[in-house]
Amino acid sequence: MSNKICSFSLQTVSVEEVLNLLKSLPDGKSTGYDLMDNFLLRCAAPQIAVPLRYIFNWSLEKGMFANVWKHAKLCPIPKDCKEPATPANSRPISLLPTLSKILEGIVSRQIWEYMENNDLITANQHAYRKNHSTTTALVDMTDQWLNAMDNGKFVGVLFLDFSAAFDLVDHEIILTKLMHYGFKEVALNWVQSYLTDRKQSTYINGSFSSPHALNCGIPQGSCLGPLLYLIYTNDLSYALAETQATVFADDTTIYAAGQSVQQVQQALQGDLENIREWVCQNKLVLNTKKTKVMLVCSTRKRPKQHGIQLSMGGVQIEEV
User: Signal sequence: where (predicted)?
Assistant: First the structure.
């Protein structure tokens, strides 16, 4: 966690900002639970920008998020259109009210600017940053692996898979982390209000189901959710003692280099235990069945039998 002396407060917005955001709403987007269409909002932008600015600024100043914007519309989309429509053959798409997403976007930009300007995001995170992408993440990793191999070393790579990561984010823990990052009371209250008392209704054949309460996790389909998850997992890198990490949003890759396979295995196994402890502390779940390990080395040096053997909680990690 950061020891820098800095603080974050939410800033109000102008009518011009709200007007521009309304005018830039794209066409063809499905409506949320409020059934409010982007085209309608864009056409009415000159008339509603002033009252919306008042509502947004009231939210930012009071640290409260409107309950009417916390209701998600859940649409089951078939994974395979050729198969029957069943829960097993569907994936849920969460749709939030457009006005909610506009306010989220305002707050998200303010938080991200604060975190970046104060170097609070770990350097190995490549998501949502200027001049960073999946390409820079891949280049960063492979460059280090190739350098190690050029020096005659073995490289062990661990691909982590977190189960339902967004759904398991603990609200108290993320608020504590935000406080450590310098969020002031009103900003903390706003995030708490944004996360709590949420509900969702499934939408099928033109009808909504009864609302279902959501007591933990980060809103799916939100603008702010991915950034909050990034902050939630930002300190994972500090749990590592002998390995390095490259991260893109919720995709985390851990790797170590050494003169022998045994040395690499010891480094990865040691930090796998550190990761296990971090996961428990943060109430997340590491999917050991989908977490994989890989040995990177020249064909000449590759062991004839087993490569890297890792385990977590008595479960063997599959080598690929």
Answer: none
Retrieve residue 95's tokens.
């749709």
Structure tokens at 220: 């799916």
Helix (H) or strand (E) holding 14: none
Helix (H/G/I), strand (E/B), else coil: 292: strand
- Using left for φ > 0, alpha for ψ between -120 and 50, and beta otherwise, residue 225 falls in alpha
Where are the chain's structural domains?
1-123+171-215, 126-164+237-320
pTM over 0.85: yes
Residue 254 has pLDDT above 70, yes or no: yes
Cα 53 → chain centroid: 28
CA–CA gap between residue 150 and residue 197 (Å, rounded)? 54
In this predicted model, which residue has the larger pLDDT, 135 or 303? Answer: 135
Is residue 226 within 8 A of residue 249, CB to CB? The reply is: yes
Q: Which residues of 25-60 are buried (b: 16+ CB within 10 A; e: fewer)?
A: beeeeeebbeeebbeebeeebeebbeebbeebbebb
With contact defined as beta carbons under 8 Å apart, do 37 and 25 qualify? no
**What whole-number distance in Å separates Cα of residue 15 and Cα of residue 103?**
13
Q: Using alpha carbons only, what angle is made at residue 277 by residues 274 and 283, rounded to the nearest 5 degrees?
A: 140
pLDDT digits (tens, 9 = 90+) for 89-122: 788 899 999 999 999 999 999 999 999 999 999 9
H or E segment and range at residue 110 = helix 98-117
Question: Given this model, what pLDDT does residue 85 score?
Answer: 67
Measured CA to CA, the distance from residue 65 to residue 71 in angstroms comes to 12
pLDDT at 161 over 60: yes
SS3 of residue 276 by DSSP: helix
Does the pLDDT at position 23 exceed 70?
yes
d(CA 104, CA 99): 9
